[in-house]
Design a protein that fits this description.
This protein is mainly alpha-helical. It is built from 2 helices and no strands.
Length: 52
Amino acid sequence: MKPLKTKVSITLDADIIEQLKRLAEADDRSFSQYINLILKESLAKNGRENLS
């Protein structure tokens, strides 16, 4: 079973949104999926995954 997802609301600069949308499309992912992916990668890279 897939883990549950939670909706959040954040405010981003318009130029960041456009860049993320282009990158998501190039990676054949939705905007939301792409943001989730890069956040997971960043947390893993910085040794902060699975903080409780």
